[in-house]
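Appendix C: a fully annotated inverse folding record. The material below is reproduced so that readers can follow the format used throughout the book. The structure is listed first as tokens, followed by the designed sequence.
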């Protein structure tokens, strides 16, 4: 069953592109796939960006790349699924259109609604074009350095992520994200470039995209590019109906109040005893959970209470800390992984029995 949820555009050398990224998105008009012919037309690589409509770095890099008229090493197919979302109400305001599902949670059935249709069509097009790999470019909603996210440890994943960053999270959380569909014939990785609108994130996306487009082999491991790996994060979530606030002191009516500068820990090490926020009272304890990939709540293994202050109970690597109440409530407040504190070393078996 085919649907028409993604417009396919074969890019010709004569194609004129709008000066601004907003103009470019208006030119696309709706969820699109751009096929940029490469020097070697027998091979194809894939890129995806703007699955989340408020994450601009990837589509800015793509727009810049198209305007540069560079010719990629091999055919490049570039998915831009969130065109409508990025233009909804105001440019790059919404992660997903209010009332719809988060598109990067839709890469598993059901497919009936609009984001489901786009996700399903994207997977059909991957089957048609059969790319050798796929990189899905995102931004975090809080500020912080870039990192990759993969669904399992694999050398080709690491080679792809190393085009952009040295930090890599290996997660067994399964949410319906695109990178969870990584397979032997097409490794898929997510790259989080850093905060939306941060010039450093834009640079990460731009430089990584150029490397990805230009290299002959993007899947061979590079021993010079050892990555820092973090395994099996949990998601610190608030249960439905709970209230969250950001403030420098407990906010009346909020079950959890988080200090506004918590995001300074993004991808840094939070030592044991790091302050996460104030809980309103005993009943607020029921608001929190920190599930791992098996669905087990690890809250009181990773965190502890001192009075009503929520603290880390061990050194943690925290990431994707958001300062947006809507994203914290609809997705999660942050991810946390126990601090490993060592790099991957060649020849060492890093398969893990944790979790
Ligand atoms: Zn995203």
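Designed amino acids, in order:
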């Amino acid at each position: 069953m085919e649907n028409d949820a993604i417009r396919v555009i074969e890019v010709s050398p004569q194609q004129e592109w709008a000066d601004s990224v907003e103009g470019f998105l208006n030119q696309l008009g709706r969820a699109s796939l751009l096929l940029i012919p490469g020097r070697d037309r027998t091979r194809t690589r894939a890129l995806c960006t703007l699955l989340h409509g408020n994450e601009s770095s990837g589509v800015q890099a793509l727009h810049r790349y198209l305007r540069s008229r560079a010719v990629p090493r091999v055919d490049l197919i570039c998915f831009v699924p969130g065109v409508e979302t990025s233009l909804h109400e105001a440019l790059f305001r919404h992660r997903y259109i209010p009332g719809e599902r988060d598109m990067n949670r839709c890469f598993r059935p059901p497919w009936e609604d609009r984001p489901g249709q786009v996700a399903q069509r994207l997977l059909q097009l991957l089957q048609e074009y059969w790319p050798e790999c796929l990189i899905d470019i995102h931004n975090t909603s809080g500020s912080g350095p870039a990192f990759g996210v993969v669904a399992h440890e694999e050398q080709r994943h690491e080679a792809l992520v190393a085009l952009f960053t040295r930090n890599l999270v290996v997660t067994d959380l399964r949410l319906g994200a695109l990178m969870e569909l990584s397979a032997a014939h097409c490794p898929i990785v997510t790259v989080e470039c850093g905060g939306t609108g941060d010039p450093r994130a834009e640079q990460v996306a731009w430089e990584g995209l150029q490397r990805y487009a230009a290299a002959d082999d993007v899947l061979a491991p590079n021993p010079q590019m050892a990555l820092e790996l973090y395994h099996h994060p949990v998601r610190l979530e608030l249960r439905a109906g709970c209230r969250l606030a950001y403030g420098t002191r407990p906010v009346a009516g909020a079950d959890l109040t988080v200090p506004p500068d918590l995001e300074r820990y993004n991808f840094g090490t939070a030592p044991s005893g790091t302050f996460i926020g104030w809980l309103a009272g005993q009943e607020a304890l029921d608001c929190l959970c920190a599930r791992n990939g098996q669905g087990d709540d690890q809250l009181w293994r990773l965190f502890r209470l001192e009075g009503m202050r929520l603290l880390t109970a061990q050194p943690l690597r925290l990431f994707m800390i958001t300062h947006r109440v809507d994203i914290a409530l609809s997705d999660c407040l942050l991810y946390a992984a126990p601090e490993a504190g060592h790099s991957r070393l060649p020849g060492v078996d890093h398969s893990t029995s944790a979790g």
